[in-house]
Structure formats: structure tokens, C-alpha cells
Write a structure and sequence with these properties.
- Helix 5 packs parallel to helix 6.
- This protein folds into two domains: 64 residues; 203 residues, 3-Layer(aba) Sandwich (Rossmann fold), CATH 3.40.50.
- With 280 residues, the protein is an alpha/beta fold.
- Helices cover 36% and strands 20% of the residues.
């Protein structure tokens, strides 16, 4: 029988050859998942011999991960601002950049602390649920055109105990939403169609509709701007997560829809990633 450390060492090398990023971290997560332990706990058990009953499910997970199935899909959950969310192929896997956007929007002095918030293209519900969790007096609505994504978002609301706090509804962007809102936040598809084929295999497992932003990646965001202007109260805020090199383009187009004071903010990697603007 192989020990925990032997399995970690061998699988790390296998993942490396398969092109898996952070190969050791991946096998540690998978092993902890199979053993039903926290990842750090397995560091205390390096000499433990694994049984065949433990190795069998691990081999299957390792096989799937080597085929570039996302780690989050194999684990079934992802941590997002203190919430444990279910994640699968029905919606985009929540990203650290989106987590950062939620942190900024949930700041103590936010103007929408007790107001109405719309999360457009809610997907797994991560933004809507994180803001509802951080702002208990806010009224949050998550909108999406995908029935599958909405089903996942509702499952996440239930597992987080936020079913009574967040309304999820089917809508083409904001078309079915009742105005006015104090904050509209959106992480819409922004990958140019021509760049989809070059994305990492793991990213390509996300729904195409959650990635494809049209010719220059801005089709849905451009459609959202006039709708947001019509659905926000005067002085309300629009917050967007966008792709690289898109902030400059959008900041020049946003004023035509009645927005002012557009701020471009960087993500933790120093890349311009967010636009926050106010309706006149």
C-alpha cells in the first residue's frame, strides 16, 4: 500500500506532465476530499498507508483532473467570501476577481447598505449571495437568462441559508427587473469569440454562454448600459467586472448613457478589471 506522501509525490509529477497548474495543491485538495479531512490535516498523516477503498475513488478523481476537468467541479464546492457554494457545469466557476469586487461593494460606507441591489448574470449566485450575506439590510435580486444557472443559484441560496433574503428570477439582462435599484452589479461574459479556443481547458468547461462576449467581448455589456440607466435611481451605482483592455473602451462609452465619475479599479494582479460609475 502507498502512503499519503507517496501518493502526493507521484500524483504531483503526473499532474505536472498533464499540464495541470499547481499540481501538488491539486492532489492535496483531492486527497483531503476523499479522506473527508481538511487539506492541512493530511500534513500530519504523511506516513499513513492508504487503503484500496480510499485509493479507488482517488484514482478516478486524478484521472478526471488530468483530463483538465476543473478541480472545483471535482470537489463540488468553492469558497467565496466565507460562503461554501456548490459549483458545477451549469454556471461559471466563481473567480477570485469577482470575490474582490464583492469585497469592495460591501465596504462599510456603501450607499446601498439598506437598498435594492441587482446582480445581472448571476450564474452560481455568488455575487448576489455574498452581498446579501455581507449586507443584511439590503434587498438583493439575482437575474439570469439560464434556467440551469438559476437552479444552481437557488441551491446555493438554500445551502447558505439565504433563500428568504435573495430573489432569483429569469431575465434577459434587466428586462424583467422592477426598478429602481440603488446598485446594479454585473460580471457578464466578456471574452471575445475569437479567443475562446485559446482559453485553458478548465475554463472551456464553463458554459459557453457564460464566456462568449461577442466580437470584441462587449456585446452584452453594451446592451446592459442603457437598461442600467433606466433601472437605476438617480445617483445609483453601476459596477462592472470586465476583461483586459476593455476598461478604457467602456469608460469612453459610459457617459453617453448618463453615467458620471467612472472609476477604473485594479484587481489583485494589478490589472484594470472593474468599472464603478454613478448615474446622474
Amino acid at each position: 500500500m502507498k502512503t499519503v506522501l507517496e501518493v502526493i509525490t507521484a500524483t504531483t509529477a503526473f499532474f505536472q506532465k498533464s499540464g495541470v497548474e499547481s499540481p501538488r495543491l491539486n492532489i492535496e485538495h483531492l486527497l483531503a476530499h476523499v479522506l473527508k479531512k481538511k487539506r492541512m490535516d493530511i500534513y500530519m498523516e504523511f506516513d499513513r498507508a492508504l487503503t484500496e477503498a480510499e485509493l479507488a475513488p482517488l484514482r478516478e478523481l486524478v484521472r478526471r483532473r488530468a483530463q483538465r476537468e476543473p478541480l472545483q467541479h471535482l470537489l463540488g464546492t468553492v469558497e467565496f467570501l466565507g460562503l461554501t457554494l456548490k459549483t458545477d457545469a451549469r454556471a461559471l466557476i466563481p473567480r477570485p476577481e469577482t470575490e474582490q469586487l464583492c469585497e469592495m461593494l460591501a465596504a462599510d460606507d456603501c450607499a446601498w447598505k439598506g437598498g435594492r441591489i441587482a446582480d445581472v448574470g448571476t450564474g452560481s449566485g455568488c455575487i448576489a449571495l455574498a452581498l446579501a450575506h455581507a449586507l443584511p439590510d439590503a434587498r438583493v435580486t439575482g437575474l439570469d437568462a439560464s434556467d440551469d444557472a438559476l437552479a444552481l443559484a437557488r441551491e446555493n441560496a438554500d445551502r447558505c441559508g439565504l433563500t428568504a433574503r435573495v430573489i432569483f428570477a429569469k431575465s434577459d439582462l434587466l428586462s424583467a427587473a422592477e426598478a429602481p435599484f440603488d446598485l446594479i452589479v454585473a460580471n457578464l461574459p466578456y471574452i471575445p469569440t475569437g479567443e475562446l479556443a485559446a482559453l485553458q481547458p478548465e475554463v472551456q468547461r464553463d458554459p459557453r454562454a457564460a464566456l462568449d462576449g461577442g466580437a470584441d467581448g462587449l456585446d452584452l455589456i453594451r446592451r446592459l448600459l442603457p437598461q442600467a440607466a433606466a433601472k437605476l435611481r438617480s445617483g445609483g451605482t453601476l459596477a462592472l467586472e470586465v476583461g483586459l483592455d476593455q476598461t478604457v473602451i467602456l469608460s469612453s462609452e459610459i457617459p453617453a448613457h448618463g453615467f458620471r465619475d467612472a472609476r477604473i479599479l485594479k484587481d489583485l494582479q494589478g490589472r484594470e478589471r472593474f468599472i464603478i460609475t454613478v448615474l446622474k
